[in-house]
Amino acid sequence: MKSLVFILLFIVFQSHAQISDFNHIDFKKADSIALGCKDEGLDNLPQLTYQLTSSLDTDVERFRAIYRWVCNNVANDYNLYLKNKRKRERFKDDSIKFKTWSNNFRKTLFKTLLKDQRTICTGYAYLVKELAKLANLDCEIVQGYGRVSTTDIENLDLPNHSWNAIKLKNKWYLCDPTWASGIPDPETNRFTFQYNDGFFLANPELFAVNHFPEEAKWWLLDKEIPTFETFLASPIIYGKAYKNLSLHIAPKQMHHTIKKHENVAFEYKLIKTITPKDISLMIDNGFNNWKTKPQSVSVEDKSLILEHQFKTSGFYDVHLYIGDDLISTYTFSVEN
After folding, report:
1. Could you read off the pLDDT of 208-222 as tens digits, one per residue?
2. Coil, strand or helix at 166
């Protein structure tokens, strides 16, 4: 009976762990400090931590300054990511070579991080954890799988992403400093800093659409956790989704087979209220693409519901936009 009570308390305790818990906190001071330390390097982490946190009053502000500094000062090294990806795939069936490569790569990774302030997800998560630890904050690295538009889900059989969990006021929260920091260009391998605040203390339910932790405890969900198959079948959501949505409700899958004139429903929870005119769909049939308005759009408080129908058969990629922000992608095979 005691164990059951503990489990129930744990579930209640973890529910709705997201940024809205701190709506009463103004992060302007923490952000200003982080942006003001842009010329600091990584040669003295205790000193950097002190500069970022010493004048802040709360743990969440101290973590915010650390997180924001990392996101604004550490570049995503796409070449390093590709090199590690290729080697891991090559050695995945040879445990000795895989372990040897991983150990050697870790040394290269941290050397590049400390010397050039360039890294991949593991380095971002490591640095956030180390700086948080120096500030007496309880922070962990979460290993798992991440899905973006370029992820080959047919061959996603090795963990490929890392992020962080941070404990604030006896409650765990999720954040992704890698995806928050900016955008690597797969064609040029260049990185552009473009901070995305949506990945800071994100809603675990939205986070779950494109993050799958290896350890179940890091879902932080108050409902049944997804299977790996469900995760792979989920829609693609983009970084801008985290700036606009608190929750993605439907469609729950990426691929759909429907009939002509069948009603398709899309449902979301918004961070802030918008107007129906902000909503559009970009539809691509493999030959042409065009922007259109859904058949219906309903916005009530922060609930967004769309409905759409396809009048001709074919295969369509459908991209949801809120204003100029690309939110999500689905496919529809429309039959007669």
Report:
1. 999 999 999 999 998
2. strand
